[in-house]
Amino acid sequence: MMVKKTVHGGLVASLTAGLLAAVAAPATPAFAVCDGPKYKYTTTSKSLVLLPGSYKTAWADPGATVTYAKGKTTGWTVGGTFTAKAEAGIILAKAETSLAISVTYSWSNTTTQTISQKVPKGKRQGRLRLYSDGYRYKVTKYQLKSPCKYVKIKSGWQTAPKKKADTSVVMEYRKKPPVGKAAADITPQPIPVG
C-alpha cells in the first residue's frame, strides 16, 4: 500500500507541475519579430531618356517660326508611380546605388540664348519645349509581413532628372485643328535615347 500511495502521490505531483508549467509559459506571438524596415524597394531596367520640361511655347501653324526666348526658366521633377517626395527620395538613393546612375528629385534651367525654329509645312502645328537628360527605371515596392517575409505590394515605372544634365530644344507637334475648332493639347512623354 505504501508503494501504491507513493506512486499515486508522485503522479499527482507530476500532473500538478505540468499544469503550472503550461499556465506559466508565455503565449507564442502572432507575428514574429523582425529587424528589417517596413518597406523595401528594388530598381531595375534603367534606360536613358529625354524628359519634357514645364515651360513650352505657344502652338504655331505650319511654316511659321517659333521662338523660345532667352531667360525662360523651366523645371523637371520625378515622375511616375512613386512621386511623394519622401518616398521618391528613398527610391532615388536606391536607384543611384543599384543602377549606378546620378539622379535628382528636381532641377531647373534658364535659357541663356534665344532659340528659333520654323514649323515644317504640312498639316501639323508645332511648338518648342526644353527637354532634359534623365532616366527611366522600374520600381517594385515590398512590405514586411509575418513571418519576416517581404511581399510585393506595388510596382511601376519611374523617371528622374539626371544630375548635371544636358538640355535639348525639341519641336512638339499636333494636328492642326479645323477652322473655328479648338485642338486638344498633347501630353508629352519621355523620349528614349539611343
Automatic annotation (TrEMBL):
<keyword id="KW-0732">Signal</keyword>
<protein>
    <submittedName>
        <fullName>Uncharacterized protein</fullName>
    </submittedName>
</protein>
<feature type="signal peptide">
    <location>
        <begin position="1"/>
        <end position="32"/>
    </location>
</feature>
